[in-house]
Amino acid sequence: MIPIQIIRENPEEVISRLAIKNIDATDALSQIISLDDQRKETQRKMDDLLSQTNTLAKEIGNLYKLGKREDADALKEQNTQLKENAKMLEVQLSEIQEALQSALIQLPNMAHLSVPKGKSANDNQVVRECGEIPLLSESAQPHWDLATRFDLISFDLGSKVTGAGFPFYKGQGARLQRALINFFLDEAIAAGYHEIQPPLLINEDSGYGTGQLPDKEGQMYHVGIDNLYLIPTAEVPVTNIYRNVILNKSDLPVKNVAYSNCFRREAGSYGKDVRGLNRLHQFDKVEIVQIAEPSQSYQILDSMIEHVARLLTKLELPFRILRLCGGDMSFTSALTFDFEVWSAAQKRWLEVSSVSNFESFQANRMKLRFKDETGKTQLAHTLNGSALALPRIVAALLENHQEENRIRIPAALVGYTGFEYITLPNT
RNA sequence: GGAGAGAUGGCAGAGUGGUCGAUUGCGGCGGUCUUGAAAACCGUUGACCUUCACGGGUCCGGGGGUUCGAAUCCCUCUCUCUCCGCCA
């Protein structure tokens, strides 16, 4: 939610920054400002009346004490009348507030000025390419075939026991998963992040806090009997820790890292993009989340990008970094960089991380603030990024590092897997 | 799952219908004293809306109600604690 003060103070900036996301907010803003005017006006009138009723109530109390019962009764009647008027205004006010809130909540976050204009993923800007794209032999296989041949992952068992998109990891496949999780967590801890293990189910309030609700409801698994949602990312529980919290300036930046399973319904996905590990309903991810002072958030965004780049370099995977264009960005983000690794056998780029600065958009929704040096409370900035999501990393590791009859584990990971090569079963 | 108790400011903890946004203690901040610190003493100390300001309004877990007037009474939801049951 864009803070109303920003809209009031600087509507032109809001309009132009929303235009980067291909949104014409001119009408919406003037509607919002007029609703806000009505809100103030109505509230002022109501406060006036309440002030009068408060004064009268005190007088009545005094009159009773003095034994002037008739005078008191007369005032009582007067006060009842005032109270009724105040009640009417209260109803009006809550209607106006509801309309204002729903208008505000429909506005996406403003794009940062560095965001390129554009409509789709084709307009994203490649800002960096790192690593060498491996030349594989003719017999190189995509990861789903490797996973079967080396007996690492069973998609069929997943379908049998749960459904498509819920694979079983087995043997060296399972150990590789565990190794990656520990590697990512240790790297984050070394970079100063604080490890958190969050719950995997969240309530409705948390869904609103980070913006999954109301509009992305269909993307989450819902446990109806308890009205809880399975988390689509650890970002949701980890950021919502700070819902309705006022931090001290000295607490910032808050740097948290969490490993979790992630659950996504991925309604509407289909085709070759979802083959194998490319798109799952349940997957593992290590997420980094920071809460920062506004003046530092972009510097912190850079440091998060370097952190993710370092992980991919250590895993010896060729990758590129994209600056997302306005049309490809999420509703809540102000600036997003995507990381893609090259999948050598599929011959395509796979998105493995998305690092974003939300500025005060999430903070405003969930009332996450901090006290600055003058003792004033103001909204903090929130940032998060995947560091990293496992399935496509596994896909790329298997494909890019495949050799004749084995798959090489990158050196940085050997201490975690306990083996240097994935080998064929029964050899 | 059954029975009971409770939810008040950063924390602890008073307050059971009238001047209570709330006694007090701790903590925090500022000051006196001190070479410095501690102790002691004095002062100060919540959030939100509105206003240039003065001021006004809202908030005692959430929501609703009774009343001229609610932290205090009633309804409801959520959460916490104790006991019993079940259980990794």
Shape: elongated
User: Span from first to last CA?
Assistant: 58 Å
Number of strands: 18
The averaged pLDDT comes out at: 92
CATH topology of the largest domain: BirA Bifunctional Protein, domain 2
**Percentage of β-strand residues:** 15-25%
Number of domains: 2
Could you say which structural class the secondary elements and strand pairing correspond to?
A: alpha+beta
Tell me the helix content: 40-55%
Helices and strands, with pairings:
Layout: H1 4-9, H2 11-19, H3 26-66, H4 69-105, E1 125-130, H5 143-149, E2 153-154, H6 155-161, E3 168-169, H7 171-190, E4 194-196, E5 201-202, H8 204-210, E6 222-223, E7 228-230, H9 235-240, E8 246-248, E9 254-263, E10 282-292, H10 297-314, E11 319-323, E12 335-343, E13 348-357, H11 361-366, E14 369-371, E15 377-379, E16 381-389, H12 390-400, E17 406-408, H13 411-417, E18 421-423
Parallel strand pairs: 4-9, 8-14
Antiparallel strand pairs: 1-11, 2-3, 5-7, 6-7, 9-10, 10-16, 11-12, 12-13, 13-16, 14-15, 17-18
Helix pairs in contact: 3-4, 5-12, 7-13
This protein binds one RNA strand of 88 nucleotides through residues 39-40, 43-44, 46-48, 50-51, 53-54, 56-62, 64-65, 72-73, 75-80, 83, 246, 375, 377.
Task: Describe the protein's architecture and organization.
The chain is an alpha+beta fold and about 425 residues long. It contains 13 helices and 18 strands. It folds into two domains: about 5-105, Orthogonal Bundle (Helix Hairpins); about 120-425, BirA Bifunctional Protein, domain 2, CATH 3.30.930.10. The strands form five sheets. It has an eight-stranded mixed β-sheet. The chain has a three-stranded antiparallel β-sheet with strand order 5-7-6. Strands 8-14-15 form a three-stranded mixed β-sheet, with no helix packed on it. It starts with a helix and ends with a strand. It binds one RNA strand of 88 nucleotides through α3 and α4.
